Amino acid sequence: MNRLNPLYIVVLLLVALLFLLFELSNIKSELKEQEAAYQVSQTVAKELLGYKKLYGDKNRIERSLKKILAQRSLKSAKLKVTQKRDAMLIVSDAIDLYALNSLLTKIFNGAYPVKALSIEAVDEKSAKLRLEIRW
Q: 37 and 95 in one domain?
């Protein structure tokens, strides 16, 4: 009288199988989402590594800044260059606008980590400049 009907066992096994298939499909979708997030993280890491190589190379930045500051168009600007361990400070009390334009064009077109930039007009033909580049 207390016998189990084999139909109940079959139904129980089918329900368990359906539950496992449902869970498996959820896990597969989560895995696909995680793979997509991993790919995004990988591309961001590669970009960051490229930026680190570009902006973190102190020697390259120093050499190229010295080349820029040694140009003939900037000789009349009377730039005061102070080099620290982790930064270079470029200050001028009266830089003409042509030299200022030339300097800023070269700085902003290159890959230099500009920390601070301050420009104040002195008169119509000159300005005060304070530029700090860190690495």
A: no
